[in-house]
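Q: What residues go here?
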């Protein structure tokens, strides 16, 4: 897999352990998609964006990474 996979995996593991810098970097990594989905009736909604960022971090915290052999 490419470097992006390794970087994303590293950020994921760091964020899961509570590393705030890695959490921020993950939000940056997905920022374009989060912003794209934060529009309601054609207008950007900051509350929706913030809620999706919170949901992303909660999902990362609860996700169990298991290597498939």
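A:
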């Amino acid at each position: 897999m490419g470097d992006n996979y390794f970087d994303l995996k590293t950020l994921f593991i760091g964020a899961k352990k509570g590393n705030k810098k890695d959490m921020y970097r993950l939000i940056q990594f997905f920022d374009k998609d989060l912003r794209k989905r934060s529009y309601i009736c054609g207008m950007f909604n900051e509350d929706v964006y913030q809620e999706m960022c919170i949901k992303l971090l909660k999902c990362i915290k609860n996700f169990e990474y298991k290597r498939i052999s």
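A: Context that may help when evaluating the design: The first helix runs from residue 3 to 16. The first strand starts at residue 39 and ends at 40.
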